[in-house]
Design goal:
- By secondary structure, this protein is an all-alpha fold.
- It has 11 helices and no strands.
Length: about 220
């Protein structure tokens, strides 16, 4: 047998860059798409799958970026971090962190009133259409339902209920969610009268006491 061929294989030539032999530096290829206009959409699609499959804690920025075929730095570029990416993946009508900053500070005994008032302002301000679309998506798409459940566990429990709940924070969060989403369905999706057209003061007076009991009152 002859001596091994000293010429690089085609794969080696690609990696080394044949242009260097001619004094021209070959561009390095990283195997990922550049962060073009479609990068944000690709990241959102990948994030929805990862968050639904692994939950917030299990999903990582690196894996989400790999699934989207982009560099992990694009997550910070487009969303500012994992938390904001998660919120964006939910496609909520408004950034919930803004609402939390408005309703959580203050007397905990009146937290329910602030929550109901803020959500009514939000829902009526958008005509209820984005909320209706979200609820219908949750009802018909498993990924959307998992994402919303993760949102309830991470945002509603961790940032709202746990700050005032004397016990059973997870149960209280579920009860609060049933109250708020139930109100949303009846008022904005089914549009059952007279609740659908009731003024805010009437709705708050009727619903807030029960929501407050879920937040801070004794449970069976």
């Amino acid at each position: 047998m002859g001596e091994p061929d000293d010429e690089p294989s085609p794969a080696e030539a690609v990696r080394a860059g044949q242009g260097e032999a001619q004094g021209v530096a070959a561009p390095r290829r990283r195997g990922r798409r550049p962060g073009g206009a479609d990068t944000r959409a690709e990241l959102l699609a990948a994030a929805r799958v990862e968050f639904a499959e692994r939950g917030y804690d299990g999903a990582t920025v690196r894996v989400i970026a790999e699934r989207a075929g982009v560099d992990a730095a694009m997550v910070n570029h487009w969303f500012g971090g994992k938390d904001s990416l998660f919120i964006s993946a939910l496609e909520l009508p408004v950034d919930p962190t803004t609402i939390l900053a408005e309703v959580v500070p203050g007397d905990p005994d009146h937290l329910a009133e602030r929550i109901i008032a803020r959500f009514l302002d939000l829902w009526d301000g958008t005509g209820g259409a984005p909320l209706s679309a979200l609820l219908q998506s949750v009802a018909t798409h498993d990924i959307a339902a998992r994402l919303l459940r993760e949102f309830v566990e991470r945002v509603l429990v961790a940032r709202v209920v746990s700050t005032v709940a004397p016990d059973q924070a997870a149960l209280r969060a579920g009860l609060c969610g049933s109250q708020i989403l139930g109100l949303a369905v009846v008022r904005y999706v089914l549009k059952v009268e007279p609740l659908a057209s009731a003024d805010h003061a009437t709705v708050i007076a009727a619903v807030a006491p029960n929501l407050q009991r879920y937040l801070t009152g004794p449970l069976p």
